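Protein of interest.
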Amino acid sequence: MKPYILVVSIILFFSCKEKPLDTPKITNQKTNSISTIPVIDSSYIATKTRYFTVDSTTIKGEGRIVIDTILSQSQFVMFGENHGSKVTSQLITTLVPMLHANGFHHTAFEVGPNSAKKLIDLSTPVSTTVEKLKTFNTRYSLEEDYQYPIPFFSGVEDAQFLQAVRQKNMNIWGLDQEYYYAAPYFMDELLFLMKGHPDYAKIELEKEKAVDIIKSWYTQKDANKIFDTIQKSPVVQQYFNRFAGNALAEQMLNDLKISWDIYNRWKEDSHADRISYMRTNFMNRYNEALETETAPKVFLKFGSLHASKILTNTCYDLGDLVTQLAKKNASKATTINSWHRYYINEKGEEEDHLIKYASYYKRLQDFMVQAKRDQWAIINLESIREDILKGRIALPTNGDYHRIKSLIDGYDYQLILPLDTEVTPNKG
């Protein structure tokens, strides 16, 4: 199994006047039937789309008004990203000062609780963040591109947005399980707790043997149940037993074992347990923040699946959690989905995902055609929902209905990225 198991409803009034809809009683092009309400199409979606550009310090264009409104009116912003996106990390770097200026003091990422603490360590002092992450990734990454110790912080651009977060002294919450390939660095973190122990040299040797066992299992083609096997290894057990009675080490080991259990049961619906674990971690951190703040504002950056407000992959994910929490608080939660259209692959070739993934996007192409190579497109799905509820526009009645309704109900905004590529690797 590859280890990719991989906030915010606001009412937005644009400064630009939208185009009027067609007059009633038109032909429904999706069904060839007569309808008194126009059916959603690309020209209508264009009236709900704004564009912006991003540089190292500024967001410019009509879309800036949209971003400003989201940040000023929301308690939670749930950013559903495409993992490994260079331009996304560049956007977040630019967003951080804007988030901070709007009272966001907390960020949450798709990493484990202990990995979040490690990211703080690796960004102290702040000016050394890029270089420290490079050293860390170089030491602990394994052979394949995705075999890095902390997910979604493998690129130079990722380190730069982390540095921006730390420059503003924003808190970092790690909500997810610890990553599949995190174990070798965890073993060293545990060893560090034994500094000064009279048997340190012997314990260090036990650690090396445990890491060798773990790495040997990472190379197995059938990864199912490998962590169950690892924990049964006498060598690993001997090393773990060294930390009995050490509260900090026991907490780290408990977090690691929770993560391993989720991976072990990935064919047995452990995804639901993973989502519940993230929801619990969020509420624990949120309740801690409530001790010093009346209404903590949180920016969450997770994969797009986790940002949806509706049932996805049989679970009510973080997008649902922050939406329900905002309703309880009489505040706002905004969920944002992301797509690529134009993408430069690892061979340096430009791809059009509307073509490459035609089977996925064919029912959503009226949205995807709003993309531009040199600008970000942001589509106001919340405004479209309102138009549907008020009878101004209709969903198609053919098979497109389901994908379009799922998108509109699941998110408040749809971002379509400009020309993009993978982050720049940050390791030697």
